[in-house]
Amino acid sequence: MATAFQWREVPGGDEFLREPRVVRGQGGVPQRLKPEVAKTAPRLHRKFSLHKPAMVEFHTVKRIDNSRLVRHMEPVKLKNYYKTAALGGIVAMFFMLYIYQHFRCIDLSFQLEDLKGKQTQAMALNGQLKLKIETWRNPGRINQIAHQLGLQRPDPSQVLEYSNFDGSQVEAARLVRPNRAP
């Protein structure tokens, strides 16, 4: 694409100022430029604009294709480059491993604190349940419930104590089938 600059001379005091005006062409062909000075001449100084034509400069833009250029590197420099890149990769890997371990340690410490809190809660609940079991096993409570249900203490004649068993009685007790409906 070509770019054209057209300079117009504008009188200002003793000097002439130049104002550039950029005109862009399409498709690599510049547009035709009409002399700008002829249009502005009646407004400015007629005698000055008639003597000098406007100056037109054309600049072309050339697109350069560097895709075929290959930069040659010496094998020693290339080998040093690979060594440096490998060393940098190893150092970065160790830093990443250190950072991973650090954050993992922090995460595990939070989990440990959470588990300690749960353990404390479980111990408190265990103490409450043991206390409840002891209140349920209290003989006074059991006697009170038995009295409410209308139960009485057994007479000493109803209770039989056995001291020595022979093997035949134990074997007979094992062979008895429990009461089940057929």
Can you describe what's shown?
The structure is a single chain. With 182 residues, the chain is α+β, with helices and mostly antiparallel strands. The chain has helices spanning 36-40, 46-51, 75-137, 139-149, 167-175, and strands at 2-12, 15-24, 55-60. It folds into 2 domains: 2-60, no CATH class; 74-150. The protein has 5 helices and 3 strands, in the order E-E-H-H-E-H-H-H. A 3-stranded antiparallel sheet has the order 2-1-3, with no helix packed on it. The protein starts with a strand and ends in a 7-residue tail after the last helix.
Question: What share of residues are in beta strands?
Answer: 5-15%
> Strand order across the biggest sheet?
2-1-3
Q: Could you tell me how far the N terminus lies from the C terminus, measured between alpha carbons in angstroms? A: 107 Å
Assembly state of the chains shown: single chain
Mean pLDDT, rounded to whole units? 76
SSE arrangement, N to C: EEHHEHHH
Low-pLDDT runs of 5+ residues are 13-23, 25-35
Tell me the major beta sheet. 3 strands, antiparallel
Radius of gyration: 54 Å
Structural class: alpha+beta
DSSP summary: helix tally: 5
The proportion of residues forming helix, as a percent range, comes to 40-55%
Number of separate domains: 2
Gross geometry: rod-shaped
